[in-house]
Every structure is written in structure tokens, then in C-alpha cells.
Amino acid sequence: MQAFLTLVRRELAGHFLSMRGYVIMAGVQLLLGASLCITLEALNQKPFDMPLTEKMPNTGFFWLILLLVAPVITMRTFAHERASGTLETLLTTPVSDWAVVLAKFTGAWVFFLLTWLPALATPFILTRYASGMGDVDPGPLASLAIGITLLGGFLMAVGCFASSLTRSQIIAAMTSFAISTGMFLIGFIAVIRPPWMGDQSALFSHLSMLEHMGDFASGVVDTRHVVFYTSLTGLFLYFTHKVVSFRRWR
Amino acid sequence: MVSPTTPIIEVLGLTKEYGSRPAVRDISFTVEPGEIVGLLGPNGAGKSTTLRILAGYLAATQGIARVAGFDVLEQSIEVRRRVGYMPETVPLPDEMRVREYLKFRARLKGLSRAASRERTDTVISRFGLQEVAGRMIAHLSKGFRQRVGLADALVHEPALLILDEPTIGLDPHQIVAVREIIKTLAREHTVLISSHILPEIEVTCSRLLIFHHGRIVAADTRENLQRRLAAQSRITVELAAPEGDLKALWENLAEVSHYHVSTAQQGFRRSVLAVREGEAFRERVAALARDRGWPLRELSESRPTLEDIFVELTHPDSEVDERN
């Protein structure tokens, strides 16, 4: 446990010891702000009957944060250590491979959640400056936070896995972007309904991140979605562990 | 588990293959506590692979390796607790400061907060890192990086130190300094060092394992290897004599194990003789030449150095299959 916490702290410190962490945070704030602006602009044009939280995940910027920022956060985890050789000194300390994988994942995940932290100010800004806005419903807000946390965990696990495969951070980022965007786009098959696929295309709606997030945003914490993302996170962490411990196969 | 009789390292029939290419083939050796053992061999002979297996980084394809009685594969964590390992490239995170890095490593290796602070201070002063303790690792010279690597390997007071090419890439002053450090370490730790340069190992190690093509081609103490060498010497003689007579003479001398006769200038013939330990062999040759009336113009002896044996054992063409 001591080693795990030491490693998580080191991972987090790594983000803040260089410009990278601050650049990522600034980028996320920019996209979040853009997302909010678009939503408010739409509200100004034509009032709609939908909670703001539900509208947010429909903007492209929201997904850009998840799909683009996640690979940037995780690309460094293993690839950088592999490239600089420090993976060898790390894996010859009395720390299990699982502790290393989980610590890197946790560090990335916590940093990911930190980048969303300033978004908490949004409800207060709205109630303070938008007249007749009424109260912001905390329920959907909380469930949206749960959704972002779960989806973030999954994307971090994908990123750690991609990073463990290579010594190039660029390749790691591109691999995890390809996997997560692929997962994101698969959901659209249910929308497009290609004729050759028939009714089976409806199956893909169950894989649609957009629909999952839509549920979370409207205040529904569906156990199926929770299980879906938790198990996918576990699966990718398992893959990551397999890759990291590959050197010790015989 | 560790009694005075338990060897600190036990390696039995260790083989490591990368794909189908064997890097280490069926090697066996033991190291007793307190020894400084040198792994010597050309680049790619399997030294680093052996060290990585012992440090718990790689798994062997076959065979057993134990450190302080713990199996390196099954009880890897226990092994790693007892090993301080410095890889050849001395990888360090550039963005950390020296003291911060050493403390981080101490915590990773399971030291308590107080103990890690204390041990960090100890290794910093031991390796003369005080002046750079607050500096970023990225800005350190190669010599200081090497010392930080050594300090890291030692921070948890391991029973066994594994150093892969500890002086590679250093300037002569730094090499001397690192050698001195290694010698002082030897008093408290068992040390395993690899090098492809003989003098490196010669001055620091009490026992040598010579690696070639993934095998151990010689394993002995420095003194024994030298004695083995001393038992062989090479005599060069230039005599003006018929070739047939010369050959007949060398054939009849029991001390001569090999000879080679070639033609020199002005009617002289040059003989190079490999001679087993013989008292006053040169005097005998001189007397024989005088008796036969053969003019003699050179008679010299050269003893092979460890370097010669190393070169001979690890010659690209030599497929020596001797295992000790």
C-alpha cells in the first residue's frame, strides 16, 4: 500500500512538475467553456425544456474533452518510462506489477477528475448571473459527474494499455485515441441502421457512449452502464498488467 | 532463511531465449556472501541478461536462480527487497531533484518515512552528492548520474548489489572514483559487477566469471586464473639451424606443448614455443644451441596476461565449450 500511494503521488506530481499538466487543464477549461457557451446560446435562441446538464453531452466539445484529452493524459504513463529506461528500475523494486499498473491508472484518473473540477463552478455562475434561471437541480448534476467519472476511468484504462504497448508517447496517444473513438463511433451504427445489417444494428445502441451519457445526464444512474464501464475498465487494466508482466513470462 | 551457509546467489542451468535466439545458455554458478564477483565478456555475451534475471526483471526460459534462498521467479518481491540493481544505462527521471528521487526510491523499496529520510541523507553524503542534492537530475553530469544510480541501488541497504557496467561512459577520473566506491561497498555487501573491459574487473573483483556466447567459459578467482596462465609461457627463439633439426629438437623436449617454426632473415629460423612450467627452460635452450654450434640471436619469454586469456577465450571464432 505504501508503494502504491508513493507511486500515485509521483504520477500526480509528474503532471504538475512540467507544463504539460497545466496545458491540459487549460485546454479542458477552454473546451468546457465553449461547450457551456454553445448550450447557453442555444437556450437564448430557442428555449428548450431540457435540463442544461442533459444538453451538455450533446455538444461536440464535451466529447472532444473526453476522447482527445484522455489519451494526452495517459500517453506518458508507461511509454515514457519504457523509453527512458526507468521502467526497469521501477519494476525491480519490491512492488508488484499490479501495484504499478493500478498506481499509474489511479494517478491518471485522479488528474482527469481534477481537470473537471473547475466545471463545478458552472452552476453557481449560472444561478448568480442568469436571471430567472431558478435552481440548478443537483440530482442530474451528480449523476452526470458519476457518468464522467466512470467513462473517464474506462478511457484512462484504455490509455494506460495503449501506453504500455510502446515506447513512443505519440503512438500511445494515437492508439488510445483510435480505440476510444472507435468505441464512441460504434454506437452510431444503431443510428445509421445500415440496411444490410437489419435489426441487429439495434444491438449497437447498447454500446453507444452517447446514449449512456445521455442517461447519466438526465439523472438516471443505470446499473447496466455502471457495470459496462467498470468491467471494461477492469478488462483494459488486466490487458495492461499482461503487457507489463510479459517480460516475466516463461 | 539466510544462514551463513546459504549462498547469496545460486544459479542452476539457467537459460534465456529471446524468441529462438538464446542469450544465456545453461549457466550455473554460486556466489557466497561477501564476495565481489565480476562478469566479464564481450558485448552481447549474456551478462546483462543474467543480471536482469537475478534482479527479478526478466524470467529465465529454463533453470533456477535463487537470491538469498528465494526463487527469483516465484518469490520475486522477496528477492527484490534484498537486491540493489543498477542497469547499464542508469535510467533516472530527468524532472526530479536528486534528494527527492532518492527519497521516492527509498519509500518504494518499503522504508518508513523516517528511515527513508535518514538513509537518503546517508547515501547523499556517502556518494558526495551534497552539492547536487537540490538539483534537477536532467542537469547532472554523467559522473554524478552514475553516483545517483549507485546511491539508489544502495538506499535500502540490500544484501546484494548488482551493477551492470558501472563505469561505462565515464572519464578516467570518474572511473577511478567509482572503483574506489565499489571497493568500499564490498566490505558490507555482496557485489556482482559486469564489464566488457578486463582491467575494470581485475582491480575490483575477487572472482571472475568469463562469459562468451551466453556460456560461462571460465570461472575462477583472479589468482587461480593468473596461476593457470603463469603455468603457460611463450618462448621465442631465433637460431641459425636446419629446419628439420629444429623440429626434431622441439619434439624431443617434454616441456614444449606446441611449437611453430618460421623462416627469419639471414639464414635464421624463428621458433615460437608454448612451454609448460619448466625450471630454467631458457638456460637449457641456450646450452643446447651452444652444444650444437647453432648461432643464437634471440631468446625471450613472454607470459600471457589475463587480457590474453580473455581475448583467447572470447575470440569470435573460439567455440570453447569448457564449463566450470
Characterize the structure shown.
The complex is a heterodimer of chains A (about 250) and B (about 325). By secondary structure, chain A is an all-alpha fold. Chain A has one domain. Chain A is about 75% helix and about 0% strand. Chain A has 13 helices and no strands. Chain A is globular. In chain B, helix 3 crosses helix 4 and helix 4 packs across helix 5. Chain B folds into 2 domains: about 10-225, 3-Layer(aba) Sandwich (Rossmann fold), CATH 3.40.50.300; about 230-305, ACT domain (Alpha-Beta Plaits, 2-Layer Sandwich), CATH 3.30.70.260. In chain B, about 35% of the residues lie in helices and about 30% in strands. The model of chain B is unreliable at about 320-324 (pLDDT under 50). In chain B, the strands form 3 sheets. Chain B has a 6-stranded mixed beta sheet with strand order 6-7-8-3-9-10, sandwiched between helices. Chain B has a 4-stranded antiparallel beta sheet with strand order 2-1-4-5, with helices on one face. Classes of the chains: A mainly alpha (about 250), B alpha/beta (about 325). The interface between A and B is medium-sized, with 24 and 32 residues.
